[in-house]
From TrEMBL:
Lineage top rank: taxon: Bacteria
Protein name listed in UniProt: Oxidoreductase
UniProt entry keywords in alphabetical sequence: Oxidoreductase
Enzyme Commission number: 1.1.1.-
Class of the enzyme per the UniProt entry, highest EC level: oxidoreductase
UniProt-listed Gene3D superfamilies: Dihydrodipicolinate Reductase, domain 2, NAD(P)-binding Rossmann-like Domain
UniProt entry tagged with the keyword Amino-acid biosynthesis: no
Location of the Gfo/Idh/MocA-like oxidoreductase N-terminal domain: 20-136
Residue ranges of domain GFO/IDH/MocA-like oxidoreductase in the record: 144-275
Keyword Transit peptide: no
Length: 378
């Protein structure tokens, strides 16, 4: 089967999120990135697209140019789905135009800057029948999916308490500098919407608790922190939650939690047990039951649900970060091929492979000779 033709808006050369999306799209060999608009400056977008090996004819000046030219192509050659990786204020107009022109859409969160905009997209999608995904990234972790399945299966019983925390510290060195806090787009309501912390990471936490519990939040009580009078955007907040199933909970989000990196922790407590998952250690799902030892579930094992196993790309004991590790080796080899050696140890050498073979043979020899000491090097 041919790969799905993927276009990208945003996510250019200096974008972390762009790397994440391109790698993610390549993992299961389902997509092929064929074009897009990677930067608002056309020359930068063009140069970056060329670095990716894309056809310059599909590196467009802007979204209007992309839609116009792609609509001229035959159906089998046209971009099918487009990822929107731009700042928040561009999500709505871009997604709207894409759906109107019959493209499927993958969009970063928050979806839009207002609920009214979001409703327009919902209605438009229903009319056009296009696929539209929002990248609440953490729901893709196998052990999050295992948590969801276990809760649905009643393993921990009726949910009583939900505690979700998402703490970062990256705004701390910015917020205390008047010039910096007034020039960062995340703290600009015109670009980010009415919320910074809750809009950026609090929405992840909110989506997560509804995702894993299968319940909707019915009532909230929020206390937000802005720190400075001239800062119009929240950078910290606590929200009390009341769920449809009578459970109660708390959502804590902060971007001024000094020293924290990406501390996203989800804790769900039921009448028969509790489940805990931490994003910084995503391969461990903890099951806690009164009177029993703590159980640690890990991805790839047959005791996990089919939903969890479908999203597990590796055997047990292999963290998902191994993809990054392999990518770094490919980078080292590519640098060597291009005469751009930067670091010793950037990739394993032939000599290391040979030494590995020596180790194998000497090990077998030691066993056969009566379990004796053998020098690896004669």
């Amino acid at each position: 089967m041919s790969k799905i033709k993927l276009g990208i808006l945003g996510g250019g050369e200096d974008s972390l999120i762009g790397v994440l999306h391109r790698v993610a799209s390549s993992m299961f060999d389902k997509y092929e990135v064929v074009g897009g608009v990677f930067d608002p400056t056309y020359d930068k977008s063009l140069n970056f697209g060329k670095k990716l090996g894309l056809d310059p004819d599909r590196l467009y000046r802007d979204l209007d140019h992309l839609v116009e030219e792609e609509n001229k192509r035959a159906e089998e050659d046209r971009i099918q789905v487009i990822s929107v990786l731009t700042p928040n204020f561009l999500h709505f107009p871009m997604a709207k135009k894409l759906v109107e022109n019959n493209f499927h859409v993958i969009c970063e969160k928050p979806l839009t800057t207002t609920y009214e905009e979001a409703k327009v997209l919902v209605d438009l999608q229903a009319e056009k029948g296009k696929i539209f995904g929002v990248t609440y990234t953490y729901t893709g972790y196998p052990m999050v999916r295992q948590m969801k399945q276990m809760i649905a299966d009643g393993v921990i019983g009726k949910i009583q308490k939900v505690d979700v925390q998402y703490y970062q510290g990256w705004i701390n060195p910015i917020i205390h500098d008047k010039e910096k806090r007034s020039s960062t787009w995340r703290l600009d309501p015109g670009k980010s919407g009415i919320s910074c912390c809750i809009g950026d990471i609090g929405t992840h936490a909110f989506n997560m608790v509804e995702y894993v519990t299968g319940q909707q939040v019915e009532q909230i009580l929020a206390d937000l922190n802005y720190l400075y009078e001239d800062n119009p955007m929240d950078i910290d907040g606590t929200v009390l939650l009341r769920f449809s199933g009578k459970a109660k909970g708390v959502l804590r989000a902060s971007q001024i939690a000094t020293g924290e990196e990406n501390n996203f922790t989800v804790q769900i407590y039921g009448e028969k047990g509790g489940l805990k998952w931490q994003q910084e250690n995503p391969n461990y799902l903890y099951l806690m039951v009164d009177g029993k030892p703590l159980q640690v579930l890990k991805p790839g094992h047959v005791y996990n649900s089919d939903f969890s196993l479908e999203g597990t790309k590796l055997p047990p004991g292999h963290p998902e970060g191994i993809f990054d590790s392999m990518g770094n080796i490919y980078l080292g080899i590519a640098n060597a091929i291009n005469g751009k050696k930067k670091f010793d140890g950037a990739y394993p050498l032939l000599q290391e492979g040979a030494r590995g073979m020596k180790f194998i043979e000497k090990t077998v020899a030691s066993h056969k000779e009566g379990n004796v000491w053998i020098k690896l090097d004669d």
